[in-house]
Amino acid sequence: MEKMYHIGLDDTHGARYAILPGDPGRVEKIAAYLENPRFLGQNREYTSWAGELSGETVLVMSTGMGGPSTAIAVEELYGTGVRTMIRVGTCGGMAEQVMGGDLVIANGAIRMEGTTKEYVDIAFPAVADFQVTKALEQAAGELSARAHLGIVQCKDSFYGQHSPERMPCGRELEEKWEMWVKAGCLASEMESAALYIVSQVLGVRAGCVLNVIWNQERKKKGLSDPHCHDTSLAIKTAVRAVELLISREK
Q: Sign of dihedral through CA atoms 24, 50, 195, 180?
């Protein structure tokens, strides 16, 4: 087959599993947890490495930021034979109990973005695969991580969240944020909804584990708000989850 237009890969990698960070700079760091890590290519926001886990080839590829580039990544990885995808990324906490350095395992996402509306009506839920989520939860437990399982908000505008007062629709943004918090949303990020909806439409499995960087709601309330930019624990959780999935499927 020809190489996929955006990601620059064809099916010769032979991988059925992929770990997907947003940041291209994080790909090599994740690949270092695999056996025989090797660089495959780079095109646009898509940097790709491969390695082995438990005798299976596993891809690590960046998706870039936001829904459009994530949807392209999922579509084209599917075209090369990948059938299980785990996003490993970062988020900002929303629920009071979610603190910097914690993990959030997203079993569903609020579709407050535009990409997935071009796949299916907004009434259709963006949910993770149960088996992938269960593997992530088990992996986090094995690593003694402080992890939260639940819903995340997925948005398109970073600054719409952090500077809503500057936006012409700021009042709407603030009201919706308050609604999500009141409903128990754990955290906010930018890629999970596209990952889940596109995976559902294609019939592949997807899950997501996130490192919490900070929590602006805790800061508003004058509570301690530790910051954590180290994604190592989330990465280890994703890698272990892939190992668990491979072992269950052999």
A: negative
Q: How far apart, in whole angstroms, are the C-alpha atoms of residue 223 and residue 242?
A: 36
Tokens describing residue 69: 């580039």
Amino acid at the residue 47 = T
* Spatial contact of 239 and 30, defined as CB atoms under 8 Å apart: yes
pLDDT in tens, 132-189: 999 999 999 999 999 999 999 999 998 888 899 999 999 999 999 999 999 999 999 9
- Tokens, residue 244: 């668990």
Between CA 94 and CA 213 the distance in angstroms is 11
Report the alpha-carbon angle 12-51-90, nearest 5: 110
Kindly report whether the global pTM for this prediction surpasses the value 0.90: yes
For residues 95 and 210, what is the distance between their CA atoms, to the nearest angstrom? 14
